[in-house]
Design brief:
The chain is mainly beta. The protein has 3 domains: 79 residues, no CATH class; 123 residues, Lipocalin, CATH 2.40.128; 95 residues, no CATH class. Helices cover 9% and strands 51% of the residues.
Length: 322
């Protein structure tokens, strides 16, 4: 099966001890046969510890915390996402008091958040960046807030009074109060600005609304026809207006389409191996199967007069090693 490799840092990739090229934002691929192979990521920056793991059946079911894994019926993507520094010492980064807990962001080779107080003693991983630690009140309930300004965009992390994680989402800005409101700019075709709302229920956050508006001046009518399906699926994931993309028969069928397509969180472009296994083109709708494990299912949109009149699955629902 074909496996694509990439990494958060520039690295030398080795497979079963043999050099397989350099990875980072650019990727390499290999056609591996069961039972798998040993993959090693050696950072160009020697201050970081290399990563190594066996790419086998167990890996694709329970990937290690250092990697994000995307699996489909024709290939898989492995992204070495989280590296530790060689120097391991306690370095405080930010501190605060919230929801009856003391909260400390620190670096011990990797960024962590320590929550303690009232019988709670817990640590949680953080994205690498700058941190604002404090308390957020939502609907009368209290949460520990860690707002992280990091490479690739800011993230808002919230934790309950029991020290349990309840939210980890992209957010350029946020507002608490009766509800939590998150706003984030999305790097998609339409340049959506997304707004999401959450209510608090006994220490748990539930999403109540999702809307998005495209960047000023964006016009789907000016897109190449081959790009329209991808823009449509991205608009659906963001919560944007679908009417410019749909035929008269499908217009107003957002709830039915959402039930048909399911709760996907992102849209991926097909790679070269997709065209070896399938006819035509399709968008890869990405579904979360675990904290760092994602399933990619392919869907094709059929157009008439630049409007989508049908959406159909492409390929099977079986994923590699599953």
């Amino acid at each position: 099966m074909r496996i694509h490799f990439s990494a958060a840092l520039p690295c030398l990739l080795r497979l079963d001890g043999a050099n397989a090229g350099c990875v980072g934002e650019a990727e390499q691929f290999a056609d591996l046969c069961p039972p798998g192979a040993l993959a090693e990521f050696l950072p160009a920056d020697g201050d970081y510890v290399p990563l190594a793991f066996m790419v086998d059946e167990t890996f694709f079911r329970r990937p290690p915390a250092c990697a994000d894994v995307y699996r489909s019926d024709c290939c898989a993507d492995i992204y070495a996402a989280r590296f530790c520094t060689r120097e391991v010492r306690f370095t405080p980064l930010a501190q605060g008091s919230a929801a009856g807990l003391a909260a400390t962001a620190f670096d011990a080779g990797t960024p962590l958040l320590l929550l303690e107080g009232g019988g709670v003693f817990a640590t949680h991983p953080l994205p690498r960046g700058e941190y604002d630690i404090g308390e957020e009140r939502i609907g009368g309930e209290r949460f520990v807030r860690a707002f992280c300004r990091c490479r690739g965009g800011s993230r808002l992390l919230l934790f309950s009074e029991e020290g349990k994680p309840v939210l980890d989402e992209r957010a350029d800005s946020y507002e608490g109060g009766k509800e939590l409101c998150l706003r984030a700019r999305i790097a998609d075709i339409a340049g959506h600005t997304q707004e999401r709302r959450f209510c608090a229920e006994k220490g748990v956050l539930r999403e109540t609304a999702r809307t998005a508006r495209p960047r000023e001046g964006f016009d789907p009518a000016k897109l190449p026809e081959a790009v329209l399906p991808f823009a449509f699926f991205q608009a659906m994931a963001a919560g944007g207006d679908l009417s410019p993309y749909l035929s008269a028969e499908l217009s107003g069928q957002r709830e039915a389409l959402a039930a048909y397509l399911g709760d996907f969180c992102a849209v991926r472009l097909p790679k070269e191996v997709f065209y070896l296994a399938h006819e035509g083109s399709a968008a890869g709708l990405t579904y979360r199967a675990g904290k760092n494990l994602f399933d990619v299912r392919w869907f094709a949109a059929e157009l008439r007069g630049r409007k989508i009149e049908n959406i159909r699955p492409v390929g099977g629902s079986d994923f590699l090693f599953v």
